[in-house]
Design a protein that fits this description.
The structure is a single chain. The protein has one domain: Tgt2/MlaC (Nuclear Transport Factor 2, Chain: A). It has eight helices and five strands. α1 packs across α7 and α5 packs across α8. The protein is globular.
Length: 212
């Protein structure tokens, strides 16, 4: 199940999740679906033109993540939600380490996805939200070769904090990213504690680095 999920996750990230790489000028009042649509269009063009990303240059990808993606994501919330109740047990230093290792894990996932970008396009689905909603779901569909792939975003309104909206979860074909990681992380925390989860993530990242 997880192998199939991550294959789909990689394919959809190539067309959609990395829509966060480029962040041109925005309006604080920009609607969440308009933000996703704008970023989707901009990033697909940018990725196709970036030979370093296409060749899998990890340093280039990490730089893009730090400077372009993270400003559009509430990564602390994403990590805390994935860790679950264990997050409240963690010290500030442990929380920092968890975010660092989780980010590396996802960056390497993105690295594999970026090389697959070719003719994908992102289609927006009708928005179901009230004007005063503080949290919304933006639903999209990634179209290219093969069957369309559902890719949805959970966003929270963040007035006065840069972009008007920040992403805190992703849904691929009905499976939310946070919910996918949460049982794995909970199992590690229950068995080995917060430091055990950090160590497990660090080991996984080291092994992934060795595999290239």
């Amino acid at each position: 199940m997880y192998r199939r999920f991550f294959n789909l996750f990689l394919a959809s990230l190539a067309g959609g999740a990395m829509t966060l790489v480029v962040a041109p000028a925005f309006s604080a009042d920009e609607a969440a679906d308009v933000m996703i649509q704008r970023l989707s269009t901009d990033v697909l063009d940018s990725i196709r033109a970036d030979t370093s990303i296409k060749s899998g240059d990890l340093s280039r990808i990490i730089a893009l993540v730090d400077t372009k993606i993270m400003p559009n994501v509430n990564f602390q919330r994403m990590t805390a939600s994935a860790v679950g109740p264990g997050w409240r047990q963690a010290t500030p230093e442990q929380q920092k380490r968890l975010q660092e290792e989780f980010k590396i894990l996802l960056v390497r996932t993105y690295a594999g996805a970026l090389a697959q970008v070719s003719d994908q396009v992102v289609t927006m689905k009708p928005m179901r939200a009230a004007p005063d909603d503080k949290e919304v779901v933006v639903r999209t569909e990634v179209r290219g070769r093969g069957d369309p792939i559902q890719l949805d975003y959970r966003l929270e309104k963040t007035p006065g904090q840069g972009p008007g909206w920040k992403i805190y979860d992703l849904n691929v074909l009905g499976a939310w990213l946070v919910q996918t990681y949460r049982p794995q992380f909970a199992q590690e925390v229950n068995a080995k504690g917060i430091d055990g989860l950090i160590a497990t993530l660090a080991d996984r990242n080291k092994n992934n680095a060795k595999k290239g």
